[in-house]
Amino acid sequence: MCGIFGAVAERPVADVLVEGLRRLEYRGYDSAGVATLEQDGLRRVCAVGRVESLAGRVAAEQPRGNIGIAHTRWATHGRPNERNSHPHLAPGVAIVHNGIVENHRSLRAELSAQGCKLRSDTDTEVIPWLVSRRIAEGATVPAALREADRTLQGAYAVAALHEGTQDTMYGLRRGSPLVAAIGAGGGYLASDANALAGLADHAVCLEDGDLAKVSRDRLAVFDVNGNPVDRRVIHVDRNASVLDLDGYAHYMLKEIYEQPRVAGLINDRYQEQGVLSNFLPLPPQRIRRITMIACGTSYYAASVAKRWFEQLAHIRTDIEIASEYRYRPLPPAESGELAILISQSGETADTLACLHRLKAAGCATLGLVNVVHSSLARDADSFIPLLAGVENGVASTKAFIAQLMVLARLAVDIAGRRKTLGQGEILGALKSLDQLPSTIAATLHNETAVQALAESFQSARSALFVGRGALFPIALEGALKLKETSYIHAEGFPAGELKHGPIALIEEGTPVVALACSGELLDKTGSNIREIAARGARVTVVGDRAGILSLMDVAVGALTIPSCDELVQPIVATLPLQLLAYHVAVQRGVDVDRPRNLAKSVTVE
Ligand code: F6R
Predict the structure, then answer these.
(1) Which one from 2, 46, 205, 517 is the annotated catalytic residue?
(2) CATH at 293
(3) Are 406 and 487 found together in one domain?
(4) I need a labelling partner for 149 at 20 to 30 A (CA). Which of 29, 415, 550, 592 fits?
(5) Is residue 111 a part of any domain in this protein?
(6) Mean pLDDT of all residues in 247-251
(7) Are 151 and 297 part of one and the same domain?
(8) Is 337 helix (H, G, I), strand (E, B) or coil?
(9) Ligand 1 closest atom vs CA 481
(10) What is the CATH number for 191?
C-alpha cells in the first residue's frame, strides 16, 4: 500500500514524478504529493484525493527541481488530509514511505521531548526527523538512514532527499518492495518496476536491509553491513502501458473482457499434460497434504480449488486466511506437506508472512502469482505465473479467473501423475478447460441482461448471494465484488446454511442472487431457494439451463451461463457476478476502479 517514486534527471522531474504516481495509483489514492529539490531548498506540493488532483497543483505551481520524490497514499495513521500527505519534511530532509513504523509512538515522544516539531498524525514523520537529527550531528545521509533502519520497527520502503546532496536520492528497503534503475533520462526509484515502463529497460530489486544511492547515471546498492552488492536485475516491459483503457470506460470492464484472452494464454502455456506438476517443489506422488493460504478474492480461489485437489487428486487440503494463519500456533511440518500461497500482487503482507513462516518450518512452498517480479515469486520455493497481465482495477477480476484456471489445471495434472483419475476423465476435464476461452466469451455476451438486473439493485440496502459446493465460494466472491465496488452491504452464504440464522435477514423484496447449476446439489439448492422465496426474497438465478429451469417458478430474474462441465462451472458462473458488480457500481456513480478506502496491493498487515 502506498506507492513511492523518485527521479533524478538533467531537467525538471515534476512531470515524471506525477506520471510515475499515476502508474502506482493502484497502491492507494487517499492523497498524493511530491517534493523536489529547488535552488532555495526542498519544495513540497500535495493534494488530497487522486493523483489527478496533484497533477493540477503541480501544473499550477511548476516545481523546477531536477531531483524529486513522490508518493500516493493509502492512509494507515492519520486522516487523508494535506497535513498527513507525504512527502514528510524535517530540516533538510524529505521522505516518502510505504509500510508501517510500528514503534512510531515511542519515537515520536522521544523526538518531541528533544524539541522536534512533528506536524502530522502519521507514523512516517518520525523517519525524516531521525535522519535529519543525525545529519545535523555530523552523519552522512547513508549513515543516518542506516541508523534509522536500526531504530525503526515494522515494514517499510523509503525514498529520501537531502538538501546537501543535490544530485543523489536514496532508497531503503525493509519488508516493502522497492526497485531502482538507471535509464536514458536519469535515475529512478519505484515501488513497482511497471512504473518504470518506457523510462528504463532494467531495474534492480532491492532486498531487505539494502540501501540504494541513485544519481542521474549511477546506481549503487549496499547491504545491511554497508558492502556494495549486486542484486537481481529484472527486465522492464516497455509495453507495460498499464494506463491504457483500450476504449473501455473503466479498467474493471476492460479486465473483465480480457478474460477470454487470459484463458487462452493459460491454455496455451500450460496445455501439455504434466507441465504444471513440473513447477511443484516436491513430486506429486509425495504430496500428503496441501495447505492453501491467501487473502480476499485469492482466498476464494483457494476455497474452490480445495474441492478439486480433494476430489480429483485425493489429497487432503486445508484453506487458510493469511492474516489468521500467520499467528496461529502450528504443529511441526511433516514430510509431504505442500503450501500453496495464492496472490495476484505477490506483495500481500500477510501472505508473505505465512510464506516466510512456512519456509522456516521446513514446508515446501509454491506461489501462484500474477506479478512475476514480486516478493512471493522470489521467495517461494517455486512459483507458477498466472499470466493475467497487469490488473489495474482495484477489484480483482481476470486474476481470479486465472487463479481458478491454473488451480484446476494443476489439480488435474497432479491427479494424472498420481493416477487418481483415469485418462478418459483427464481428457474430459482438459477439454472443458480448453473450451473456456469461448465459453467465457459467450457468457460475457449476456451483458445487456446484467445491466438491466443492475438497475433493480439501485435501491437495495443489502443483498445476499447463495450457492452450494464449489459455487459457495463464488457466492462469497460475488458478494465481495458487489460490496467493494458499489458499497451495498452484501453477504455470501452456503444455501444450506440459511435456515441456521441468516434467513432472518430475508424480508419482502430482499435481493438474493442464487447460484444454481446442474449437478448433484441442484435439487438441494432449489429447496433452499424456495424457502427464502417463500419469505419474500427477490431471487435472481445465475446458472445454466437446468439450474434456471428448476427455479423458474420462484425467480424474478435469471442470468444464463452456458451449460458446461461441473469442473468449470465456478469459473463461468463468476462472470455475470463481475458484470453485475460493475454495472451496479457505475449506475450508483462509484469510481469503480478506485473504490473508497481500498488499495490494490495490501503491503501492510
Ligand atoms: C478483491 C481483491 C482483494 C484481493 C486481496 C488479496 O477484489 O482484489 O480481496 O484479492 O487483497 O490480494 P492479492 O491477491 O494481491 O494477494
Answers:
(1) 2
(2) 3.40.50.10490
(3) no
(4) 29
(5) yes
(6) 95
(7) no
(8) strand
(9) 7
(10) 3.60.20.10
Average pLDDT over the chain reads 95
In terms of domains, do 501 and 478 share one? yes
Query: Does 72 contact ligand 1 (Cβ within 6 A)?
Result: no
564 is catalytic: no
Burial 312-348 (b: 16+ CB within 10 A, else e): bbebebebbbbbebbeeeeeebeeebbbbbbbbbbbb
Q: What is the mean pLDDT of residues 330-334?
A: 82
Write the single-letter amino acid at 402: A
| Distance from C-alpha of 309 to C-alpha of 367, rounded to nearest angstrom | 16
Residue 239 has pLDDT above 80, yes or no: no
Statement to judge: residues 252 and 390 lie in one domain:
yes
Same structural domain for residues 425 and 458?
no
Contact between residue 2 and residue 71 where contact means Cβ atoms under 8 Å apart: yes
The reply to whether ligand 1 has any atom less than 6 angstroms from the CB of 518 is no
Same domain, 460 and 594: yes
In a domain, 256, yes or no: yes
Phi, psi of 261 (to 5 degrees): -70, -40
C-alpha cell at 287: 504430496
Atom of ligand 1 nearest to the CA of 296: 9
Residue 488 one-letter amino acid: I
Catalytic annotation present for 2: yes
Expressed as residue numbers, the domain containing 113 is 3-235
Residue 453 forms part of a structural domain = yes
Tell me which residue has cell 523510462: 199
Q: Which of 27, 107, 480, 443 is nearest to 297 (CA)?
A: 480
Q: Which residue has the cell 518520525?
A: 126
| C-alpha to C-alpha distance for 101 and 213, rounded to whole angstroms | 22
Q: What is the mean pLDDT of the segment spanning 382-411? A: 97
pLDDT more than 90, % of the chain: 93
Q: Indicate whether 322 and 430 sit together in one domain.
A: yes
Of 373, 403, 434, the last residue of a domain is 434
User: Who's near 322: CB < 8 A, 6+ residues apart?
Assistant: 293, 294, 295, 299, 341, 348, 350, 351, 353, 354
User: Taking the CB of residue 106, how many other CB atoms lie within 10 A of it?
Assistant: 11
Q: Comparing 507 with 240, which gets the higher pLDDT?
A: 507
The phi and psi torsions of 157 (rounded to 5 degrees) equal: -125, 135
- Do 466 and 430 have their domain in common? no
Q: Are 483 and 472 in contact (CB under 8 A)?
A: no
Question: Which amino acid would we find at residue 401?
Answer: I
Q: What is the pLDDT of residues 582-599, one digit of tens each?
A: 999 999 999 999 999 898
**Residue closest by Cα to atom 9 of ligand 1:** 296
**Which among 204, 235, 266 is the end of a domain?**
235
126 closest CA partner among 81, 89, 76? 89
Q: Which residue has the cell 427477490?
A: 538
Query: Quick one: average pLDDT of 270-284?
Result: 93
Q: Supply the Cα-derived Rg of the chain in whole angstroms.
A: 25
Q: What is the band of 241 on the pLDDT scale with cuts at 50, 70, 90?
A: low
For residue 296 and ligand 1, the question of a CB distance below 6 A is answered with yes
Lowest mean pLDDT among 221-230, 326-335, 467-476, 544-553: 326-335
Total domains in the fold of the chain:
3
In-domain check, residue 240: no
